[in-house]
Amino acid sequence: MKLEIKPKLIIHGGAGSSLQGKGGLIAVRNALRKIVDSVYSQLLMGINATEAVVKGCQMLEDEPRFNAGTGSVLQSDGQIRMSAAIMDGNMGRFSGVINVSRIKNPITMAQFLQTSSDRVLSDYGAAELARELQFPIYNPLTDLRLQEWIAERQDNFQKTMAGVVAEPEMAEAGSAGRGTIGVVVLDGYGKLAVGTSTGGKGFERIGRVSDSAMPAGNYANKFAAVSCTGIGEDIIDECLAAKVVVRVTDGMTLATAMEKSFIEANNNHRDFGAIAIDSNGNISYGKTCEVLLSAYHDGNNIGDTLEWHNQELTGNR
């Protein structure tokens, strides 16, 4: 099928307080841009928005430096529990899994649930579904995340979360971070979709639920799509993704909806970031934290937000 418009794509690998120098910045930039290039090439070949979201999220989940899939952080009991969600903007359909374990790509399970009558499953139900689908058992644990947990256990879990990016120099520097991955796509047929996946914030109480598998952190319709990253509780309190999408649906431009939402969030002392695309192909991103780990393809070029000025709340392409 011939493409009707230029596809647009933006992804994120989390939000945090610092990349601790050029070594971390270059590594993250290369990882993000490689994924953007790969997914955009497939969009040009005609895959639809939801397929592109899944492929992008799978690649981010498979990259150990990001806190989703392989490389997910450990909770307070030393276990990995992951959450993920997809929303097909054209269908207006949300699906997700909450606190699932022992699988490689939680986003794949969220994709399967798009066609289910029960579209959001928590830990036990998701585990049963994984068995039904014969997903191979997979251990997403990395040595760096294990050492991070061991060190924090020895300190009696004084931190409230783990590092967003798994890099040795980041761990040594004690850099704070909020780890989620996300992909937002406008495909060549004018359809929007979004996907978000996370290993949680790390060291959290057992049973804590992330925003990533809620409309607060992952939402789309025919007008706009938004994926969030940061402190999940702050994202939930602002209902950020759904708020931005509703504002665009009601007639605001995406840039104005993002700006208004982030001014409100900043006034409320929230700590997060978000990426978004509207049906006209406008790309937007925002943050109240220092760093948003994001890259995009605007239809002509690949860019990123890694050296985006700390005082800015929102940006657009």
What does the model show?
With 317 residues, the protein is an alpha+beta fold. The chain has a single domain, classed as Glutamine Phosphoribosylpyrophosphate, subunit 1, domain 1. It is 32% helix and 24% strand. It contains nine helices and 14 strands. The chain has helices at 22-44, 49-62, 106-112, 123-132, 143-154, 168-173, 232-238, 240-249, 254-267, and strands spanning 8-16, 82-88, 93-100, 120-121, 177-178, 181-186, 192-198, 218-220, 224-230, 272-278, 283-287, 291-297, 302-304, 314-316. Strands 1, 2, 3, 4, 5, 6, 7, 12 and 13 form a nine-stranded mixed sheet that branches. It has a five-stranded antiparallel sheet with strand order 8-9-10-11-14. Helix 1 packs antiparallel against helix 2 (49-62). The longest helix is centred in the first third of the chain and has 23 residues, at 22-44. It is globular. It starts with 7 loop residues before the first strand and ends with a strand. The relative contact order is 0.19.
Strand content: 15-25%
Terminal CA distance: 27 Å
Shape by Cα distribution: globular
- Relevant CATH superfamily: (Glycosyl)asparaginase
Structural class per helix/strand content? alpha+beta
Radius of gyration: 18 Å
Contiguous uncertain segments of 5+ residues: 170-176
Number of domains: 1
Kindly identify the CATH topology.
Glutamine Phosphoribosylpyrophosphate, subunit 1, domain 1
Number of DSSP strand runs: 14
Q: Tell me about the largest β-sheet.
A: 9 strands, mixed
SSE pattern, N- to C-terminal: EHHEEHEHHHEEEEEHHHEEEEE
Question: How would you state the average pLDDT, rounded?
Answer: 92
CATH architecture: 4-Layer Sandwich
| Number of H/I helices | 9
Reading off the top of the CATH hierarchy, the class is best stated as Alpha Beta
